[in-house]
Design brief:
The protein is an all-alpha fold. Helices cover 44% and strands 0% of the residues. It contains four helices and no strands. Helix 2 runs parallel beside helix 4. The protein is globular, with a radius of gyration of 14 Å.
Length: 110
């Protein structure tokens, strides 16, 4: 755990759940997964917003750019046509799907 935490902190990909807590055994939300993947690929500049989703106001400030990037590039889709559910826990299946889509996205860019 500590090796993962040190590597994550050094790369800035995973920053913990607060200034003093890392919580590697905690649950992870959809917006947290999107943020980690967004940081992993280098946090590219994004344009746009999340106005297509009625729950856009539920997105944490730190996750807005990540979710704009994720939805714009097909990494993450809404849980319905009008909801993103950013505060919902990400299931294992969702997380794997998001990771696969990032991999596919990067392969297409190469």
């Amino acid at each position: 755990k500590y090796t993962v935490q040190a590597a994550s902190d050094a790369d800035g990909v995973v920053k913990g759940v607060s200034e003093t807590e890392f919580d590697p055994d905690g649950r992870i939300t959809r917006e947290q997964v999107a943020t980690i993947l967004y940081r992993f690929i280098g946090s590219p500049a994004v344009e746009g917003d999340l106005s297509a989703f009625t729950d856009a106001g539920d997105v944490s400030d730190y996750a807005v750019s990540a979710l704009v990037w994720a939805t714009k590039n097909g990494v993450m889709r809404g849980t319905s046509d009008t909801t993103l559910s950013p505060q919902n826990d990400a299931s294992r299946e969702q997380a794997i799907t998001f990771i696969y889509r990032v991999y596919s996205f990067q392969q297409a860019e190469d």
